Amino acid sequence: MRNVILGTDWWTDCDDAVAVRLLANLHRAGHLRLLGVAVSGCMEDSVRSLDAFLRDCGVEVPIGIDLEATDFGGRPPYQKRLAALPSRFGGNADAENPVGLYRRLLAASCGPVELIEIGYPQILAALLDSPADAYSPLDGESLVRAKVSRLWIMAGKWDEPDGGRENNFARNRRASAAAAHLCDRWPTPVTFLGWEVGSTVISGAKLPDCDLLRQVLIDHGSAAGRSSWDPMLILLAAAGDPEKAGYRCVYGTASVDPESGRNYFRQASDGSHCYVVKLRPDAWYAAEIDRRL
Ligand SMILES: [Ca+2]
Fold it and tell me: Which InterPro entries match (predicted)?
C-alpha cells in the first residue's frame, strides 16, 4: 500500500478540511496509508481542532505542528468549534515537533513515502536542512532522497509567464524563503497543483446538515461550497497518475523569488518538476470530490 504524510496549514481557509476528509476516507478505504499530519500554521486551537476533526472522520494518526508559525495573519474561523470536541491532545504543546515527525515516520517506513503538502512550505524546507538524529543517521536531504518517492504540493500560480503569486508561497517572507529553498533543493520529483487549477472548482455544497464538515464550511462563510485547491491535490495524489485524474503535465524546473514569493517555471521535457493543467470541465472535478466526501 502507498504511504503518505500530509502537510496542512489548517489556517484561514476551509479547503484544508475538505482535503482532510477526503484523505481520511481514502485511508479508511485502504486506498493509501496516512502515516501522520504536520501542521504549518499555529493558532491556539490548531492541534485539538485537527485531531477532533480527524477523529470524527474515523482516523487517529500522529500530529506535529510548527509552534512558531503564528505569523501568517488572518483569523482562522472554524477551529474553535472543533476544539471543543473530544481530542487526544490537551493543546499544541502535546503534538510532536514537525521536522521530528517527518524524520521519525520516514526513518521507520520500510517502503517509499509520498508527501502531500497543502500548506506553507517552511516545515519541508526545514526537513531538508535537518541534521542526523536519534531517528536516522542521514541528514534531511539524504533522508528525503532515500525514503520519499514524490512530493505532491498545492502551491504556486503557473499560468503567468512573468511570475505568478499564490498564498502558500507568498503569504509572508518566511513562506517565500522556504518555497525558494524547497524548489532549489528538494531531491525528488515534485508535482505542483496551482491556484489557477482549483479556484473555479466549487465543492462541499452538498453535505447533509449533520455533517461536521458542513459546519466547518458554514463557519468559514462557504455554505454554498468552496474553491477546491487542496481537495483537488488529494485526488491527484490518490490517483497517482495525473492523466487518470484529469490533467496533463508541463515538465521543467520551478523556482520562487525568496523576497516576493513569485513563482517561475522553465520548461524542459526532462525536468523533475511538473505542474498540472486541467483537461476536463470544472464540474467534473467538483463531482469527483463531492461524491467522495
Ligand atoms: Ca491549505
Answer: Ribo_hydro-like
Residues 252, 269: Cα–Cα separation, whole Å = 6
Residues 76-91, mean pLDDT to the nearest whole number? 97
* pLDDT tens-place string over residues 162-216: 999 999 999 999 999 999 999 999 999 999 999 999 999 999 999 999 999 999 9
What pLDDT is recorded for position 9? 98
- Cα 134 to ligand 1 centroid, rounded to whole Å: 31
Distance CA 155, CA 230 (A): 9
* C-alpha of residue 137 to centroid of ligand 1, in Å: 32
CA of 10 to the centre of ligand 1 (A): 6
Strand, coil or helix: what is 144?
helix
Q: How far is Cα 190 from Cα 135, in angstroms, rounded to an integer?
A: 25
Alpha carbon of 118 to ligand 1 centroid (Å): 4
CA of 106 to the centre of ligand 1 (A): 22
Cell 470541465 locates to 281
In the predicted model, what is the mean pLDDT of residues 68-89?
96
Bridge partners for 276 per DSSP: 249
The closest alpha carbon to 245, from 263, 255, 231, belongs to 231
**What was the pLDDT predicted at 161?**
86
103-162 pLDDT per residue, tens: 999 999 999 999 999 999 999 999 999 999 999 999 999 999 999 999 999 999 999 989
What does 120-135 look like in DSSP terms, one character per residue? -THHHHHHHTPPP-SS
Whether 44 and 154 have beta carbons less than 8 Å apart is answered as: no
